[in-house]
Amino acid sequence: MVDSSILPLELDNVSYEIDGKRLVKNVSCCFEAGRSTLVIGPNGAGKSLFLRLCHGLLQPSSGLLRWRGSDGQTGQRQAMVFQRPVMLRRSVWANVGYALSVKGVSRAEREPIINRVLQCTGLSRFEDIPATRLSFGEQQRLALARVWALSPQVLFLDEPTASLDPPATHQVEQIITAIQSAGTRIIMTSHDLGQVQRLADEVMFLHRGRLLEQTAAEQFFDCPQSDLARAFTRGELLWWHRKNPLHPPGISKEISR
Amino acid sequence: MRFFSIVGLIVSLGFAVAVNLAHGAETFITLASTTSTQNSGLFDHILPRFMAESGIEVRVVAVGTGQAIRIARNGDADVLLVHHRPSEEKFVEARYGIDRKDVMYNDFVIVGPIADPAGIRGMSDAALALSKIVSASAVFVSRGDDSGTHKKELGLWVAADIEPTVNSGERYRETGSGMGATLNTASAMSAYTLVDRGTWLSFRNKRDLAVMVEGDARLFNPYGVILVNPALHSHIKAEAGRRFIDWLTSTTGQDAIASFRIGDKPLFYPTTR
Amino acid sequence: MNDFSDAFIAAFSLLIQLDADLVEIVALSLTVSLTAVLSAAVIGMPLGAALAIGSFPGRRMLIIAINSLMGLPPVVVGLVVYLMLSRSGPLGVLGLLFTPTAMVIAQLILVMPIIAALTRQVVEVLWAEYEEQLRSLGATRWRALPTLLMDGRSQLLTALLAGFGRAIAEVGAVMIVGGNIDHATRVMTTSIALEVSKGDLALALGLGIMLVLIAVAVNGLSWLIGSPGQDRLLRSKRGGGYGRQQYPAARTR
Ligand SMILES: Nc1ncnc2c1ncn2[C@@H]1O[C@H](COP(=O)(O)OP(=O)(O)OP(=O)(O)O)[C@@H](O)[C@H]1O
Ligand SMILES: [Mg+2]
To answer: Which end of chain A is less packed: N or C, by CB atoms within 10 Å?
Structure first.
């Protein structure tokens, strides 16, 4: 069974607001197949909301979001790992099994898939343990195993290594790379610029709900196009712009490709 | 999903057991009767004998006479055994029941605290005794539940020409419950009350209560048995019901009633003696 | 006041003698109440879960209604069921009055709102945690419902026990629809009421003590089954029924 790709994903002037507050503002961009995108930006920039919009958990208040290759069946071909992993109150094994059962995979077919992903994420020895008993890092790995089992075409990851120690971060990055090399399009957020450099083909910079920049990774780190991105990559605090409002309306045009 | 099928299995099993328990005996009839008869223990004494002879189980629903008559009128019982002649006659007159027969009798007694604040001990005029209770401002506990005993008591108040409910909640306490609960109240309050002798003799929580008044002809307490009219309700087990009524009024049944005693005292006297 | 010591002696001798009548009464009590609680759970748990995660017109009204039904007086329920099941009532042809089935129905009506309301609360909390994850996995609300019930099972057990507590302790409704018929519909609570009306307070209290002991036994048993440490579903791979016990070969790795 060969799935036709649901990519590219195209956002046209997408905004999202709650109680009249615009939290994602006029984002237009496109995710092509075959690369990995890292979304960066300060806390509260709207990265998590942006991923939820793309994943379809939230509906844009205005604007258009299209899976160009889709036949309308996108839900089964994309997956997401959340900033805080949600563990079902079942065994590690059953957590993966559940995801497969929702996807409609038969019992007999689940077995080898579950074994494989648990092995690849180093969780086999925990398979009988309640998932809620795992450490935070192990839970994050289980969340990855769960989506890996689904072999999605597109995988959204929301800060999968936040609050993990360096070895665990390394492990998770390896898992992500493995998932990617199996053909999954990665779109993830991160605060770890080293990680961005290691994993990204493409970088998106979000700030206060606006997309300020979407460029190839090397270019982003060599010479970011917006001042804010430059300041961010240098590790400078981003509070100074409040005094001199910095984003003229044209700025998103400046960075859109 | 397996979980749900297990639950379903348990539930249906439970229902099956419940239904089974309900229909354990091959034939049974439902008898609507009064708490006073049940509490006396009479049914435990005579019904096993009838069952042994006939193979028919008698299931007793014991409530107040008023409610027993309503249950029978709705067709929820096959046979009615109560103790209030006027209600019974009205029941038969209205064609709700047929074949009314006298079964047994005993008598009511007025019981009260041994201290006897109203000074009625040994009297045989029940109406006079009631008026003495009122004039002594002593407490009287009434069933207040439309039962045969309650109706009898109300008749005595009429005979005494007293309206007891003017003291309602004070010296006239209407419990609105069965004979046992009313006796418990009376013994807890050291109050007077009217009770049938059967219940009185078998009652276990007498404390300082004792019989004060007995022997008045107006305290006569006859029990009648009636078959619920099968013409009104097709499901009435008329044949089995008739057999029960015939047995009760037969020599064997009457002997069984007479042989029910607590100590050496009979609680009920068969009508044919 | 020897009533209390008498009661304990009575309870103790009841336990020791364990006569057939008592066993029958206890068995019927358990059968009726457990059947009622389980049937109530079969209806009330999905209903409660639907109220927690659903969005349909009248949902709020239904929640208020269910919550208020929790306080339904048993006697009223008994009366309504009596009128329904009476030979002169709409369901009279079934001939269910004065049978254990009638008692199950009455207790089911009493218990269902409790189970539904508590389930709604449990599932609502769990849904807040699970919603995005389940939707992300592609689960519809319909699919999420059994998942939430399954994963909330340890708290839902409390709902079941609350329902069981009300059912087994209830006397007003079963007295009316069951009739307290010896060897047919006599349960623990109605025998207690009967012994009280016979004035045998010690025996009544003794039966009451037995009732408490049974409640303790049932609760203890469910605790043994339901405590997280003992949760087989949680521990085994089959947790949630996604087992692989059918594939023993896979285990030898
Ligand atoms: N349901 C909501 N109601 C109101 N405000 C919200 C809601 N969800 C998010 N926000 C706000 O939207 C902004 C963006 O939130 P978001 O979670 O996307 O930030 P983020 O870029 O992921 O930040 P972080 O790096 O801390 O994870 C925040 O200011 C947040 O407070
Ligand atoms: Mg975030």
So the answer is: N
A18, A53, A83, A187: which to mutate for ligand 1, most atoms within 8 A of CB?
Answer: A18
CA B102, B104, B108, B109: dihedral to nearest 10 degrees?
160
Output the CATH code of domain C2-231: 1.10.3720.10
Q: What is the mean pLDDT of chain A?
A: 83
Determine, for residues A90 and C133 on separate chains, whether the beta-carbon distance falls below 8 Å: no
Least confident of A241-245, B172-176, B254-258, C19-23: A241-245
Quick one: B169 and B86 in the same domain?
Answer: no
Query: Do residue B34 and residue B51 come from a single domain?
Result: yes
pLDDT over threshold 70, residue C242: no
- For the stretch C58-71, pLDDT in tens is 899 999 999 999 88
Q: Is residue B28 located within the same domain as residue B67?
A: yes
User: What is the rounded average pLDDT of the residues C14-33?
Assistant: 85
| Gap from CA of A256 to ligand 1 centroid (Å) | 23
How many whole angstroms from A189 Cα to the centroid of ligand 2?
8
Domain of B227, in residue numbers: 2-106+222-270
Q: Residue C20 — pLDDT band, cuts 50, 70, 90?
A: confident
B5 at C interface, C-beta within 8 A:
no
Query: Any residues with CB less than 8 A from the CB of B234 and at least 6 apart, and which?
Result: none
Confidence of residue A70 (pLDDT cuts 50, 70, 90): low
* CATH code linked to domain A9-225: 3.40.50.300
CA atoms within 13 A on the CB side of A59: 1
Is the CB of residue A67 less than 8 Å from the CB of residue A7? Answer: yes
Instruction: Find out whether the beta carbon of A49 lies less than 6 Å from any atom of ligand 1.
Output: yes
Identify the band that residue B209 occupies on the pLDDT scale cut at 50, 70 and 90.
very high
- The number of folded domains in chain B is 2
- What was the ipTM of the complex prediction? 0.83
- Ligand 1 close to Cβ of residue A223 (< 6 A): no
Q: Which residues of A touch chain C, with CB atoms under 8 Å apart?
A: 52, 55, 57, 75-76, 79-80, 82, 86, 88-91, 93-94, 97-103, 107-108, 110-112, 114-115, 127-130, 150
Q: What is the pLDDT of residues B152-192, one digit of tens each?
A: 999 999 999 999 988 888 889 998 888 888 999 999 989 99
Residue C244 in contact with partner chain A when CB distance is under 8 A: yes
**How far is the C-alpha of A99 from the C-alpha of A75, rounded, in Å?**
13
| Whether residue B209 sits in one domain with residue B126 | yes
Q: How far is C36 from chain B (nearest CA, A)?
A: 8
Domain residues of chain A, as ranges? 9-225, 226-257
Distance in Å, CA A47 to ligand 2 centroid: 6
Same domain, B84 and B210: no
Q: Of the bound ligands, which one is closest to the alpha carbon of residue A47?
A: 1
B7 touches chain C (CB under 8 A): yes
Does ligand 1 come within 6 angstroms of the Cβ of A44?
Answer: yes
Mark whether B45 and B96 lie in a shared domain. yes
Residue B122 and residue B203 in one domain:
yes
pLDDT, residue B90, reads 94
pLDDT class of A236 with cuts at 50, 70, 90 = low
Cα torsion B24, B25, B28, B34: sign: negative
Instruction: Please report where in the chains the tokens 């939820």 appear, as a residue.
Output: A52
Question: Is the torsion defined by CA of C59, C60, C61, C63 positive or negative?
Answer: positive
Are the C-beta atoms of B175 and B187 separated by less than 8 Å?
Answer: no
Q: Under 8 Å CB-to-CB from C61, ≥6 apart: which residues?
A: none
C189 vs C178: CA distance, rounded Å = 12
Residues of C in contact with B73 (CB under 8 A): 88
Domain boundaries, chain C: 2-231
Domain final residue pick, B197, B219, B241? B219
C253, pLDDT greater than 50: no
A108/C237 Cβ within 8 A: no
Per-residue model confidence as pLDDT tens digits over B8-51: 666 666 666 655 554 545 689 999 998 888 888 899 999 999 99
Residue A159 CA to ligand 1 center (angstroms) comes to: 13
Quote the CA–CA distance of B29 and B58 in Å, as a whole number: 5
End position of a domain, from candidates B219, B238, B259:
B219
Pick among A89, A151, A158 to test the C interface (most C CBs inside 10 A): A89
Element (H, E) at B192: strand B192-196
Q: What is the CATH number of the domain that holds B72?
A: 3.40.190.10
Summarize the confidence of residues C118-128 as an average pLDDT.
93
